Amino acid sequence: MLVVLLTVAAALQPPAAEDVPIASIAARTFARSEDWVTTGLDCTLFAAGDIDGDGFADVVTLNGAGQLCWAACVHGWKASPWEVLREGVAKGAVDLVVADLDPAPGCEVVVRYPERDVLFAVRDPVRFRDERELQGDIALCAPVIEREARAGAIAPEAHYAHLVVHGMLHLQGYDHETARDAERMERREAAILKRLGYPDPYRPAR
Fold first, then answer.
1. How many helices, marked H, and strands, marked E, lie in the chain?
2. Residue ranges of the chain with pLDDT lower than 50?
């Protein structure tokens, strides 16, 4: 009897974490098992965010068939069955990110690849019909920016604007590795900032 009980207990133990496929962990966590008929058993990338703009986090996944799928959060607590948001997503993705990147309600989905990011956006009403490649990310550290603005006697808003423009130009291929390249980039920065109503950051205020 003792042997039988130990055997049953062992059978009830969950397998070691390294033996459990990511997809099966996610299936237990985020969706009913029958929903995998829609998305496939090879889903290993997941993200969460408010896709439909109702204020609750939905679940997004990408399967081996190149389908970007989602399960909507219903009444703030229950995920609906999976639906396909977009077909034909390129293979090789390493991450999914859900972020609110435009003024419209709801979030967009960024599919990240080793060398590029692709944004899926414009819901109709929730399916993504616009796809464009992203050039990169711009990260701003507020405490550092504010400290630099104080040290340089610069309005914080102007310093933020300068760094955003500077970062955007880098993403478009500008750099300042040589004196000639730096002069070209600074001229472009100053022209953009002037149109936005900010002073030239490379000329001291008079």
1. 6, 10
2. 1-34
